[in-house]
Amino acid sequence: MAPPPNLYKYGIVIDSGSSGSRIQVYRWEDPSKTQSMHKKDKALLTSPPKIERDKKWSMKISPGISSYGKSKNFKKIWPDHYAKLMKFAEEVIPQQSIQDTPVYVLSTAGMRLLPEKVQKQILKETCSSIREHTKFVVEDCKDAVQTIDGETEGIYGWLALNYLMGQFNSYDTSKQLHESIGFMDMGGASTQIAFVPSSAAEIEAHNDDLSKVTLRNVDGTTQEWNVFVETWLGFGANEARRRYLNQLIAVSSIGSDEVPDYVDDACLPKGAEVTHSFEGKNYKFKGVGNYETCSKSIYPLLLKNKPCKDDPCLFNGIHGPRLNFEKDKFVGVSEYWYTANDIFQSGGEYNYHGFNEKVRGYCESDWKTILKNSKKGHYSNLDPDKFLKDACFKANWVMNVLHEGFDLPRLAVDVEDKGETTEMKETEQVHVPFKSADSVNGDELSWTLGKILQVASSQIKAAEEDSPQIGVYPSEISGKQFVPGGSLSPGIYYENDSDDEDENMHSVYSIVIVLLLFFFVYHFGRSHFAKWGYKVRKLHIPIPLKRAYNTAASKVPIINRFIYAHRGYGDFESQNETNMSLEEGGMSRMASNDRMASVLRTRSAINLNDNADIGNEAPASISPPLKGSKSFNNFMNKPFVVPMRNTQQIYQLGDNSSRDSLHRIPSNSSLSRGKGNT
Questions:
Q1: pTM here?
Q2: What letters, b where the CB count within 10 A reaches 16 and e where it falls short, cover 415-446?
Q3: How far apart are CA 111 and CA 402, in angstroms?
Q4: Would residue 204 show up in a list of annotated catalytic residues for this protein?
Q5: Which residues does the annotation place in the binding site for ATP?
Q6: Distance separating alpha carbons of residues 171 and 439, to the nearest angstrom
Q7: Each residue's pLDDT tens digit, 91-116
Q8: Closest residue by Cα to residue 160 from 352, 13, 20, 286
Q9: Which residues fall in the annotated binding site?
């Protein structure tokens, strides 16, 4: 029996990306009012709160919030941007719940590219305007309104994925290890991975590298997960492409003072041409469509030769737990999905043979043929110049990251092909270590769900007094502090008085510097230039200026101590100078947040839906099915070796409680397009 509407709590997460901001409204049962209703449902009690979201509870607007940083027109942020989103939320959430609903505005992508000071001004205006114009809850700006980094996004994605896959359901606190699904995300500028090592030995060996993520079940017991998360800046699809073209320019100029008019590009289809700017000069590239050369040329970009502090080494000198693909399972989103699904119709279950052959055929095709196929709708109606010219490179880059970067074995290359041919054997015994997806069981796979899951979980009262706080305990090597309630990183954020204080202190510093110059000229001049010094001593500083100097110096104790230490150079010559006492101050401030790494999405429309009318239909639960109910989790139970088969078919994730049944769905479908279970 569903609880009455007034027994629900609501939460809002706004994903402010490079191309726009999208608001997501979520709701869940108020555990303080509904726990007694479920006292006999053990499966529900030992699971985190069930999050619900209606597809109509989402809205996006463009352009991205970072555009206000470029125009410096911060006062338009509320009327032109967030006012529309918050009005939308007010129409979705019951009026009696608005004053209790928290808002989280988390910026990604474009905001990371802006200077830190500009970010702070945007976030300050965002936070203050939401507080001023709405009744929603924004308790602490630094947590609720911030720019998150790639690692934070990776953890949120891991939480969302495993929640939808049902891995947090029926959590057994007596077990040491729990199964989970690894999360891979590739944007335009960087790529991330987040996963739990599959053995206790690996967890113990890499304890310093792991973050502890905690959730709370409905009954108040705590879940603890040891998660490895890492991000590689510059290893996203677009940045890798840029580095690749720069590499071609460098190679083409070897042995010659000039680069040829056209640089041959093996990763560009035959006859296609592109222009790339490098060091202020434009270079032209002509496609030669050589798949093998393309793949070999891309490999050095992984920087596998860069040494690690310890083994095992992933790539670019990053150390981490070894990925055991005989047991580990991974889902890749963003570029892993878009390249495979939109162009090669191979989204979902990854099959190296099938995908490799499709990529080879595309890369070695004539550009005119690709354009003809595009007009026929073969490539999801993507813009040829914007997406299709880079498709060969991106597909090769995805495979290089998977197989060379993360050591995913290739069938019949790195592992033996056992040759099972019957459909039954193929279905029941094949373990699939990697799949690409943009949704799970019909629910969008968005990191915003991971954020709200921690928010909802943190509101449950602990069953025991010594239970750990809900949130993330960062790895020891990260140097970060624990942040409760689902906030992973302090990021770049607005402090209530930080900007005003900065500007005031700039004025203070300027005055102090000028007065110090007068001070040194006066004292050293008197010692070495008697006559000139005598004239200087006759000069009297106006009393208001002296008072301003006193006030400024009191803010900077080191100046006071320095002057007293050097008074031996001469006495003050007048009573006014004698009265210029420099008092000890109490100002000590540091503000040194590094600007976060960019994680750009490959396409502007990722996770951004058009405005939708709000309906009265009941929201669809995005809670994963509890054990014993229908689900989509065949991912978890196939043996590792994948025999060759028709790559036009993949398997829909099957039942959580049964590891034996799988359902086929078309390969160009998402990971799961079935109706969500409530």
A1: 0.74
A2: eeeeebeeeeebbbbbbbbbbbbbbbbbbbbb
A3: 28
A4: no
A5: 188-192
A6: 24
A7: 999 999 999 999 999 998 778 878 99
A8: 13
A9: 188-192
